[in-house]
Amino acid sequence: MSDTSLSRGARWFHALAGEPSSKAPVWSSDASLGGETARFIAVVPDPDNRFARATDNVVGLEQGWQLARAVREAIALDETSGTRRPIVAIVDVKSQAYGYREEMLGIHLACAAAVDAYATARDAGHPVIALIVGPAMSGAFLAHGYQANRIVALDAPGTMVHAMGKEAAARVTRRTVEALDALGETIVPMSYSMTSFAKLGLLDQLIENVDADAPDAAQIERVRQVLVGQIRSAREGQRDLSHRLESAAARKNRAASIEVRRRLAEQWDAV
Amino acid sequence: MNTIATARSAPMLLDSFIELPARERARALLDAGTFRELLGPFDKIESPWLPLQGVVCQADDGCVIARGTIDGEPAVVAAIESAFQGGSIGEVSGSKIAAALTMALRDCERGKIVRPVVLFETGGVRLQEANLGLAVIAEIQAAIVALRRHVPVVGVIAGMVGCFGGMSLAAALCSYLVVTKQGRLGMNGPEVIEQEAGIEELDSSDRRRVWQLIGGEQRAATALADQLVDDATDAVRSAVHAAFKLGLPAAHRSEQVDMFLERLARIDPASVTPETMRDVYNPSSAQHNARKEQA
């Protein structure tokens, strides 16, 4: 666990699932979790990737399509049986890949393929859990984690969810990084902290007191128990994402989302 | 007077789809006289986050939801207004789209098919609403995937803003995509790429290069969009009608994992160009062109 050359996503993959059965940049493997078989998937750095802009733990063309393949394999394995194995997305993705080849060759479709696969798995009854152990940024998180039934995160430095990297967001909004941080304190969706993300009703559990870089056996076991609990909760709940609007936090900080849905439903059929 | 009337009815600027604001685009795609807006400006559901940052709201948050019929069948159109905050997706505008698609899904599940059309004109997440913009885009995507099992979801990228960020993924999830030459489709805008990867990666001021990479014509030529149409209201309307007539595709583009992985494997990143990419991504069209050249 102390191999510092590994990314966090890779380390957590080893801790929870052992050896990957596929090569970088997308690791996937089936492993035991709470008495059943679960599929674990992570995006890991791939220094030799033939796309030079996608060698880090980012979601590029191959990553997007390979994520889709890893998820669809799990769907296919369970298709004719009554079981629906849980799928755990271990999330440590800095960004999507930024490059002209990526755009030309359809990175938007590659990421959409991953979204499609995760959403399809969820709709088919697979409990999909996102475990955030590092950054969960923007389009990369959309492709790997944001279609989950349940989202949990380690409460540790370096875990964050956001639409844009801090430096870039500061540039675009013509603010300093400090000003951006200050803004996040008053405007919840602008914040980069996991506690603010939780305030939006989007986080199901914040897992405290875990060393994200070098967890001990007890901490890993605790994360497992969280996953088992969330899998159970997902199986008891709806297959769509309506759960995200049901918490007390959502009712407070996503009141507009709820209001839009309520009033649009009222007006849907002409009177 | 006759001369003026004739001049006005001529299909010139008036016929341009791109020049229409979102509300008129939605109206133009629905059968005449059937347009009915939901959560319109008088409902005044505005962004709760923009005023906190000194930005003036718009009463429809830059998104028009309209019901009506398309070819006589019940339909819903979600049209993003590029003139407000660049068509960016905030909590309210995005929730309007997600809610409309979810209602269409509910009807479809009850056996009442509703034809959904999304008019993409967006840079992606509205940065002032950051995490909620991203969250509602995930919800829009979930709704498209669920809905397109029942009915084709048709996307239109007319321009001039184009379709970027997380919404480019939503566009890619659509059953059919209608584009104009002026419509660009990409995940990261050229400015973002230049910022993140440097000007040697992409010079965003090189407009010609940008169009060659992500313009509507190239997207159609590489089968990443389905139909290229002129910037004319009739042409866009016909293409949308035709898409619904096709019914559900045998497989959606975003489901064709093995095919696209195989195509990617055949691409040499060092040498690939927008031209050579066409041969790999759209072999049938490439053969067609070869035959034309022989003839």
UniProtKB/TrEMBL annotation, chain A:
It is an enzyme of class 4 (lyase). NCBIfam families: malonate_gamma. InterPro entries: ClpP/crotonase-like_dom_sf, Malonate_gamma. SUPFAM superfamilies: ClpP/crotonase. The gene is mdcE. Its EC number is 4.1.1.88. This is Biotin-independent malonate decarboxylase subunit gamma. It comes from Paraburkholderia fungorum. One of its GO terms (molecular function) is lyase activity. Keywords: Lyase. One of its GO terms (biological process) is carbohydrate metabolic process.
From TrEMBL, chain B:
Residues 1-252 form the CoA carboxyltransferase N-terminal domain. One of its GO terms (molecular function) is transferase activity. PROSITE patterns: COA_CT_NTER. One of its GO terms (biological process) is malonyl-CoA biosynthetic process. The chain crosses the membrane at residues 153-179. Keywords: Lyase, Membrane, Transferase, Transmembrane, Transmembrane helix. Pfam families: Carboxyl_trans. Residues 275-295 are annotated as: Disordered. It is an enzyme of class 4 (lyase). Its EC number is 4.1.1.88. NCBIfam families: malonate_beta, PRK07189.1. This is Biotin-independent malonate decarboxylase subunit beta.
